[in-house]
Amino acid sequence: MEAFPARKAVLGALQIRRALPVRGRRLVGPWCFLDRYGPLTFSGGKPMDVAPHPHLGLQTVSWLLDGEIVHNDSLGCEGLIRPGELSLMTAGHGITHAEETPASNSGRLNGVQLWVALPDAARHCAPSYEHRVNIPEVTVPGARASVILGSFAGFTSAGTSFSPLCGVELVVEHGARVEFPLENSFEYAVIILDGTLEVERQILEPDTLYYLGAGRGEIGLASKAGGRALLVGGLPFGETVLMWWNFVARTAEELAEARLAWESHERFPAVKAYHGERLAAPAFVPRPPRRD
Ligand code: MN
Prior knowledge:
Bound molecules: manganese (II) ion
Largest sheet: 8 strands, antiparallel
Number of strands: 25
Distance between the termini: 17 Å
Shape: globular
Helix content: under 10%
Structural class: mainly beta
Number of helices: 1
């Protein structure tokens, strides 16, 4: 396994660790972005307060271990997300959303946000939002796998996906040693979320993405004290994506057009449910796609 330490960043007032993209690893299947935040506790205020901002060419996946988030978007969809539930937004050709800690909350926050790059055939589709509360669970003695998105070990999430992939939460009980089947053709990466966990007899360090590559028929997991991890994977994407701000596209021109549309209040409608200013786009600095 190849280890990639996450880098620290901030999302408004929230400290996050960005595990994708990192230098040397831009994609795992179609997964192109992975932010880890928490665990944290708070009283008053809202640690998550991401004002309305646009997305393009991707899906956002929010998954909580603790606490709650409220999602509002320009389609008028609202989702109050709790641990073990999938918040899935397909941006397609354009959507605006906001994510906040709700006024009524537990005072705790712990979770991940991921992005999935949409393949060329699907990236101009109409935007949509899904909140899924029934997450398929694969159970074996000593462990379980929650299939957040895509397919894993014969189980498939109800969340809509557009290329072969999986996003899975793995929970291993203390003292257990288990195996789950993998797709030979998929590449995979794993990051520990809490507790302790060994993958292929290697102890996972916190805030580190471990790239497993492709060609594996199974994954071996063990935990001394109990542990939880996130596994992402998929067919190698095969398309060169260009990411800038909240957009996933193919050319610098597309990114510049999307930025101009946002700044001109076109294409990306307002989020009526959010009370406050929307985010301004940063200055656009076109860069060639990174291949490292
Ligand atoms: Mn967003």
